[in-house]
Design a protein that fits this description.
- It is a single chain.
- The protein is mainly alpha-helical.
- It has a domain of 57 residues.
- It contains four helices and no strands.
- The longest helix has 16 residues.
């Protein structure tokens, strides 16, 4: 039988880890939301605690795309502009998957 204290410590650690990116001023509300989400779960374990934490964290962290430039910006993302050929590895003049000839 697993040690209940070890399981409790593991679950508390998961919750603490999810709370770290949040501002300290909202962490107590985050913990309350985690408890509310956990009350909807049938069993408590690492999976259900992680799921409840992700749901609660989404309520506090808003990730929006940066606003488009004035007049609309139809260009591709910065990543595609920086790397016109994504099949090449960094610093390699050959496409990925090609081998060097002997003696090169």
């Amino acid at each position: 039988m697993p040690d209940p204290l070890a399981l409790h410590a593991e679950l508390a650690g998961i919750i603490r880890d999810y709370a770290l990116p949040l501002m300290p001023s909202v962490r107590s509300r985050f913990y309350e939301r985690v408890c509310a989400h956990l009350s909807e779960e049938r069993e408590l374990g690492p999976g259900s605690v992680s799921r409840a934490c992700r749901r609660a964290q989404a309520e506090f962290v808003a990730v929006d795309a940066p606003p488009a430039a004035e007049g609309g910006d139809d260009r591709k993302s910065d990543v595609s502009r920086r790397d016109p050929d994504p099949t090449r590895s960094r610093g390699s003049p050959r496409p990925i998957g090609t081998s060097r000839a002997p003696g090169e």
